[in-house]
Amino acid sequence: MVLIGADASTDVVEVLRQWRAKIDPAGGIWLLTRNAVNPGYIDQTELIRLGPAASVVDNKICSVSDSVSACAS
Hints:
This protein is of the alpha+beta class. The chain has helices at residues 12-22, 44-50, and strands spanning 2-5, 29-34, 60-63, 68-72. A 4-stranded mixed sheet has the order 1-2-4-3, with helices on one face.
């Protein structure tokens, strides 16, 4: 399991590709992002859309705190 901080400046596909190559095939990658009211926000639906380009599939979105959300691939 990998936890990665990401914001609007992150090349999400590249980060997911790099980590996908490093972890066990059954492993997971969580992208931690700011919630919508915070600078650097990434819409979770955008993360879901980008996943297949990195050979990952979204399977969970959750709220981590008042200011952070997460999307698992």
